[in-house]
Specification:
mainly alpha, DUF3140 domain-containing protein, DUF3140
Length: 116
């Protein structure tokens, strides 16, 4: 007999919002974070642990199934959606390239150029 696992409706909505906002595939996000986290120092024995926050946490959620989410994962998803939406609201005027703004979004798994 299969065990039926149910997910709260609020979590369903958050899951959809999170995956709509985090539009970078997990391997691309990991590569980006590794590039961002490399800086001048080398990586330790476990490169995933050296990934910058909150990107590492977002990446961990992307690797999970909805039914396996913990309360901490749900909080990460909430914060990611809020931060991405906040940054998108601060979009620079058309024609003004702002790498810091785009990089801040990429750190959260959102590529604003993918929206075009």
């Amino acid at each position: 007999m299969a065990r039926e696992q149910r997910v709260d409706a609020e979590v369903e909505t958050l899951w959809a919002d999170f995956h709509a906002q985090v539009n970078v595939p997990s391997e691309q996000l990991r590569s980006w974070l590794l590039t961002r986290g490399s800086g001048e120092e080398s990586f330790g024995p476990d490169p995933d642990l050296d990934l910058p926050e909150p990107g590492r946490q977002i990446l961990a959620v992307l690797r999970k199934r909805k039914v396996d989410l913990t309360p901490a994962d749900i909080q990460v998803m909430r914060e990611a959606v809020e931060r991405i939406e906040g940054l998108l609201d601060e979009r620079p005027a058309a024609g003004n390239a702002d790498d810091r703004w785009r990089h801040a979004l990429l750190d959260l798994g959102h590529d604003p150029l993918a929206d075009r």
